[in-house]
Design a protein that fits this description.
Length: 175
Amino acid sequence: MAGQGQFGLTLAELREVMEHRGAEGLELINTKYGGVIEMCKKLKTSPTEGLQGDLQLAERTRVYGTNIIPPKPPKSFLRLVWEALQDVTLLILIVAAIISLGLSFYKGESEEEETEDESFRAKADSSLEEKVGWIDGLAILVAVAVVVLVTAFNDWSKEKQFRGLQSKIEHEHRF
């Protein structure tokens, strides 16, 4: 394996050490590698001063690869919309809008013991209400859609801005 002959430890062994934390990691280092000092000897580095010079760094980068954590991929806009829809208040509003829409299209039985005048007024009022009763439910759904889209857009722009700042910081602090 690459790295075994030159530095005494393989990349797989270093990864195994990194997978263990705390007392478990220290125990692994002490039992398998003979302690921190012995591990540093195998890696040909100083436990107090680290690497000496750019040549050692370049050679270790060639053998072990770069020591970076790759950034997480950014969330898509649709993912942010889905996360915004998980708000309890918005879910309650969506359910209320669906119920309102359902009830607006439901036609119940009318009472037949009304006078002709009252019946005419009631039919006029109810027919107008039946024609526009769906607007309440639709208005709630539109309001929810606006809130969700604005929230998702704000989150998306904040994430984009954060990644830009993070990239700028990484480029400024290269050694």
